[in-house]
Amino acid sequence: MAWILLLFAGLLEIVWAFTMKQSEGFTQIVPSIITLVTMIGSFALLSISMRTLPLGTAYTVWTGIGAVGAFIVGIAFLGEQLSAVRILAAVLIVSGLILMKISSTH
């Protein structure tokens, strides 16, 4: 169950990163509210998952999901650059997430 909560925490991190960008420095009210609500939800789910998962594993997976997800959203919706080096960086992050999951005893 902790892994499922952690996955949803990471997905909410992607949402709040995207809406934070859309908030234009918290000057746009709707994206700002969505950012704050999803941040709270993301942190809450992360903290619940940390009841059973090790700190290093939970935090690394959470930030990794957010980083790779934000990378994909940036390319898909914001027209950000796609290059071989950026793809390699994302692949390395995902590899690290897989290794963290494999090495976890929970």
Notes on the structure:
The protein is mostly helical. It has one domain (2-103). The chain has four helices and no strands. Helix 1 (2-22) packs antiparallel against helix 2, helix 1 (2-22) crosses helix 3 (55-78) and helix 3 runs antiparallel to helix 4. The radius of gyration is 15 Å and the shape is flat.
List keywords for this structure.
mainly alpha, single chain
Give the C-alpha Rg: 15 Å
Number of helices: 4
User: Approximately how much beta-strand content do the residues carry?
Assistant: under 5%
Structural class by SSE content:
mainly alpha
Please bin the fraction of helical residues. over 70%
Gap from first CA to last CA: 10 Å
Mean pLDDT: 95
Low-confidence stretches: none
Question: What is the total domain count?
Answer: 1
What's the total number of strands? Answer: 0
Describe the biggest sheet? none
Transmembrane segments: 27-46, 58-78, 84-102
Keywords: Cell membrane, Membrane, Transmembrane, Transmembrane helix, Transport
Subcellular location: Cell membrane
GO molecular function: transmembrane transporter activity
Q: How would you summarize what this structure contains?
A:
With 106 residues, the chain is an all-alpha fold.
What is the topological layout?
Elements: H1 2-22, H2 29-49, H3 55-78, H4 84-103
